[in-house]
Amino acid sequence: MATPDRDTGGQSARFLWLYALAVAGGAVAYVPFLTILLPLKMGQIARGGEIEALSYAAFSGAIAASAANIAFGWASDISRSRKPWIIGGVLLSSSLLVTMRFAETVPEIIALIVAWQFALNMMLAPLAAWAGDCVPDHQKGTLGGLLAFAPALGALSGALVTLPGLAGPDTRLVIVAVLAAAMITPALLFGRPRAMPHLTLAEAPSDRGRRTENEVVRMWLARLLVQIAEAALFAFLLFWLTRIDNGISGNDTATLFSVVLGLSVPLAMLAGRWSDRSDRPILPLSLGAAIGGLGLIVMAHASALPAAILGYVLFGLSTSVFLSLHTSQTLRVLPKAQTRGRDLGLFNLTNTVPSLIMPWLTIALVPLFGFKALFLVLAVLCVLAFILLATLQRP
Description:
Layout: H1 4-7, H2 13-45, H3 50-79, H4 83-99, H5 106-134, H6 140-147, H7 149-161, H8 169-190, H9 213-244, H10 250-278, H11 283-300, H12 305-333, H13 340-390
Helix pairs in contact: 2-3, 2-5, 2-7, 2-8, 3-5, 3-13, 4-5, 4-8, 5-13, 6-10, 6-12, 7-10, 9-12, 9-13, 10-12, 11-12, 11-13
């Protein structure tokens, strides 16, 4: 018997690609600023106290982003319209980003960051929910593969705007705002998604029935566990590598990050398309978590640079694919279309909560037991994510 999704056909390739470009634009809107431009700005206005100031800014921003993502996702549910919120968020967040150049004190820039996070998530939350309104289950793996472009292009944009001689600190903010808007706008103007009325019904019944609370909780916990491991590696990879080989530089680490993110794009696309064709949406996720745990075990026992890099490549590739595909497959397990934006906001907590957990986990383990203990604990988290997904009834 044909499934409801396949009876209605698929979403157009044009929309899938333009939507993926828009999501990548969302990443460009915040990745260069948070990872490069904000630390540089803090160095200018908080000389000697930039680390503390940056920590306060990151904490305040994470709280604001968490609340705003839920609120604006829910608002787009209530209004039954995504585009106006996305457009408003693009305009407001771009304006506030450019305004950052006028901040002269730490309280000023923290206040601007909180306002910017609200505006940014006014755009990001309904943008995420829009995919649930338009992309049927049998294309969610393909969509997840395309979403792997987002972190890669986010990192690439940071390298682009900081090219020597390209632009000064203030102009870099303008370039980021323009790049993000240019990547998001085509989907709004030319995406023209095919109508998928069965995806926007009040109960949004899918071809496999209503989702249980157990399935939703398992997907949420699995992503949280992998995100904690990913956040720890992102923050402390350089410190660990220099303990193995003190000749490793920041540029070497950035290059390793970039290579892994670049390789993850075609791998995620292949895995996503395979999951659609084989109708096995969860298998690539469970394998990604398992291989990520294996990579961490290799890292825990690495005593030379080649083994260390091998372990990180295993971990980085598998978890990058996991996170991209998980983003799209999450839409499969959410039970109700009328609260899709709000529910995705709750899933977004798996992106912000790890930044609050990870520093304390690291402080508790590394000074006493070294990075080996940290990596083994993170490996256990990945294995737990694997178990949660491997024993999940196929949605």
